[in-house]
Amino acid sequence: MRLATGLRSLWRAKVNRRSIYTAAQTSPVDEYRKRMLPQFAYEPFASRHIGPRPDEVNNMLALLGYANMEPFIANVLPQDLPECSSGVEMKGLPVPLTESEMLATIRHYASMNKIKKSYIGLGYYGTITPAVIQRCILENPAWYTQYTPYQPEISQGRLESLLNFQTMISELTGMEVANASLLDEGTAAAEAMVMLFYHGGQKKPLFLVDRMIFPQTIACLQTRAEFFGIKIKLINREDDIDSDAFGVLFQYPDILGGINIYNCIQKAKSRGVGVVCAADLLALCMLKSPGSIGADVVVGSTQRFGVPMGYGGPHAAYFAARDEYRRKFPGRIVGISQDAAGRRALRLTLQTREQHIRRDKATSNICTAQALLANVAAMYAIYHGPLGLKKIASRVHQQAVLVANAAQKFGHDLINECFFDTVIIKPKTSITAAEMKKLAESYNVLLGSIGDEMVSISLDETVTDEDIKILLNILAMQPDLQSDVFAILEGTPSGAIGIPDEMKRNDNFMPQNVFNSYHSETEMMRYMNQLQSKDLSLVHSMIPLGSCTMKLNSATEMRTLSLPEFQDIHPFSPPANLGGYGLVMKELKEYLCAITGFEGVSLMPNSGAQGEYTGLLVMRAYHRASGQGSRNICLIPVSAHGTNPASATMAGLKVVPVKCNPMGGVELSDLEEKIKAHRDQLACIMITFPSTFGVFDEGMKRVAELVHTAGGLVYMDGANMNAQLGLCRPADFGVDVCHLNLHKTFCIPHGGGGPGAGPICVSAKLAPFLPTHPAIPHGSPKAIGPVSAAPFGSASILPISWAFIRMMGEDGLRKSSQIALLNANYMMKRLDGHYKILYQNPSKLCAHEFIIDCRPFKGTGNIDVLDIAKRLQVLHRV
């Protein structure tokens, strides 16, 4: 009894003192363990996370000829990094927590986030995730542990779901082709701009942007345009369209809620200017589709189709266009094909991996998309069907009309009479917009603002009658209004038109059987389970595909996704209300710095490839600030990831390939020759470490020295960081920037091709150039513009990585990398002799992966690599 009481009192004291464990603190629970519980064996989380048991580890080491782990690791790691043989200290990582302790801590952090009813809008809205979808997809490892469906034989279920997503988008937008999702609306708009540019606008690089576009989208466009040589010009609706422009972007509905863009589109079409429309999907259930009024490309977010706001992400963006652009599409497209027996089969098609194939000729570097969230949005549409979506949209619109009329009743000016869900008012002269927003906050309500004089109110499907009453009290500026607020409006002439007849949608959409069949929970559950049964995921077996290594996405880590205090948060909420988010992000940055040895971190990039792009922009900004803006050569070894040259091209760099030696490392003589040829223009080298050839480069320190001596910087692709945790740190061997795939090394699930998070870590001299954001400014005056629509990218999944590190601790992280290296070498040893291994280091060892050369079997038995891959798939399912 005394023991239990002591633990409870310590934990209570910990919570009351906020017990936010920073790098320099030890938790009360840790102190209690040391003082009171020395007799108990303490099982750390790492023993659950790491698969092989101690006897299995010893057996694997014995097969490789080692008595223990340390000499094995010494021979795997490069010989020019001798200090790494016994590992490096990751100063700043706290003592690991147990699973229950971590959950108590993260719940305490969550309690520090103040949930307020948001009417801010601007592309982010409250939504209701149907429980059957949350349970069967978002919380189901058979869906969230899948890898990208590059191998269709084990991916037919999720490919069907993504095809449903594409069909939904095409139906709602009126476009002929849609892809299988992008990262967010801001970057989707940037992809549309670049696609039109390459489609025929390179001779007239002017892109027009309506001032009524969401501000985060404008900022993303400006960041992307710079190194493509595209000039962005902001225009007003009434302005003439410049025929020298290759494209123009309109918002539908716009930042003022306006929906009258038909004349604008027709004016642009008459000038031969391509039209991009950023459209709200729920609005398109009631408004004419962009395709029907002349748009060429339509982009937007599917967030309000059942995906929580999550402080900005992850959310699946959509991208649709006319058929003539099919070959220029960014990202992935699911297509219908046939299998060997003539049956319908689905597969990724067209330019699915063009960045890997075309490398520096690629027009996009998209690798991760938001597939899991696209599946959620598709299932939301299937669950509600077209009639259900119309009902939701109609209710939201009717509430908006009611609010608009109430605002006029209480003497405020209505700025826009035509709208779908967003009402813009100018408060009557006796009060200010700031006063109205302050009153709203006393009700735990967040209103949006347009400048200093106008208030915006964006309605969504979560708004109840009680919420409307509170809004009317705020508009009346009478906190204790006791009368029936709805009765106040009776007999009041309607000043709001809402949707004029000429803009109302009058065609049927989504007639396909899949959208009109699964409206009961039983039917929906069975359909999702049917699709799930066609796929391979970590619930079935390991996934030995490429260097994108799969880690356990533990149930404890994933439980953070079910906390409303992290999910029901608008990304433009005042940071002062979000102490829990602030602490998670602050500590995660500290942990990533301890692991990599760097001084600065940006959490904004929401994919690995976007992290590459961000890191390159930061380096370019540094060179420019140093008076070296003309440096534009990027050296890339042929062993680097395929997205590297694509990212470099997007950053305005000229790619120069560097040869590799027979062991898979950089050929130093070729590197020296390339540096000599481009010394004055050398911006950087991008190197993957360990490389895609499956080995640690033996000359990494020398590579960094050569590049630095010539005035360049070193970028390390950190996708394979799982082979380095606690063994070596990029900053220690000369790297200036690296990105980290949190959806690989740090346990955020792949989700069939996303969600993703690709933060970058940088040295102190580059930290001032990390990106900022117009809505939530952060960083220094030297910061580059935003690379994603939300200030902190895929913020809602960051607690997963925080929890992983917090429970693993320094020793657990180090052991996870040791075991990754051991597993790969054990498998290689078992297969060596039966198969040819392409690359090994001088000790005949690999890193965390290895490459088998299957080419000889083509001549001896007419067996190629796909035959072997398919047989492996069958064995995995047995």
Automatic annotation (TrEMBL):
Q: Say where the protein is mainly found.
A: mitochondrion
The UniProt catalytic activity note for this protein reads: N(6)-[(R)-lipoyl]-L-lysyl-[glycine-cleavage complex H protein] + glycine + H(+) = N(6)-[(R)-S(8)-aminomethyldihydrolipoyl]-L-lysyl-[glycine-cleavage complex H protein] + CO2
E.C. code: 1.4.4.2
Q: Where in the cell is it found?
A: Mitochondrion
Domain annotation Glycine cleavage system P-protein N-terminal: ranges: 48-475, 499-771
The protein's required cofactor(s) are namely: pyridoxal 5'-phosphate
Q: Name one GO molecular function term.
A: glycine binding
Record key words, sorted: Mitochondrion, Oxidoreductase, Pyridoxal phosphate, Transit peptide
InterPro entries listed in its UniProt record? GcvP (IPR003437), GDC-P_C (IPR049316), GDC-P_N (IPR049315), GDC_P (IPR020581), PyrdxlP-dep_Trfase (IPR015424), PyrdxlP-dep_Trfase_major (IPR015421), PyrdxlP-dep_Trfase_small (IPR015422)
A Gene Ontology CC term for this entry?
Answer: mitochondrion
| Gene Ontology BP terms | glycine decarboxylation via glycine cleavage system
Please tell me which top-level EC class this enzyme sits in.
Answer: oxidoreductase
Q: According to the UniProt record, list the residues that bear N6-(pyridoxal phosphate)lysine.
A: K744
The entry describes its oligomerization and partners as: The glycine cleavage system is composed of four proteins: P, T, L and H.
Q: Briefly, what is this protein's role?
A: The glycine cleavage system catalyzes the degradation of glycine.
Q: What's the protein here called?
A: Glycine cleavage system P protein
Organism listed in the record: Paramicrosporidium saccamoebae
